[in-house]
Write a structure and sequence with these properties.
mainly alpha, 9 helices, about 75% helix, globular, cell membrane, transmembrane helix, UPF0750_membrane
Length: about 200
Amino acid sequence: MTDTPRHTRIEDAQGLVFGTAMCAFGILVLTGAGLVTGQTAGLAVLIAYATGWGFGPVFFVINIPFYVLAWHRLGPEFTIKTLISVTLISVMSGFMGDLVTVIPQNPAVAAVLFGMITGAGLLAIFRHRASLGGVGIVAYDLQERFGWRAGLVQLGFDLVLFAVAFLILPPDLVLWSLLGAIVLNAILAINHRRDHYIAT
């Protein structure tokens, strides 16, 4: 049996730049429609809505505590790539809004586009052995330590997040946001499979 081929550093670089650019643009579509999403990015969006702070700085700061856990549980390479990915999204989301104006007229369309665009970005990031940090790292750790299913841990966090969103956003926007989360997770569930993608 041959060793699994690995991406070169140049391939990793283009994959992470592409993935983070798509995710940053997805966040631009999401926030342009006043929607929210799940996971750590969703928490950063809610904080940004509630405080008026920029998404990028909030997202970067929220992820800082998770790097220690990632370093010990998932290794230095994964942690460094995740730090790079989070930093790129934080920076890109800061200036992308000044370069591209996105004013969605229909929240349902915005939700679906967000799910598709961000799903493509996350696939690229995951396939180059990185993540967007946060809740996903904790969920993985709890699964490894206690046998808790990572998907259920993340779902539990998202349910709490969306419940809080009802206190901040109009109910119809929260419901459209759920559509975006469903599209995003469906794309990941269908396409992020090691039996369909060999290079790591």
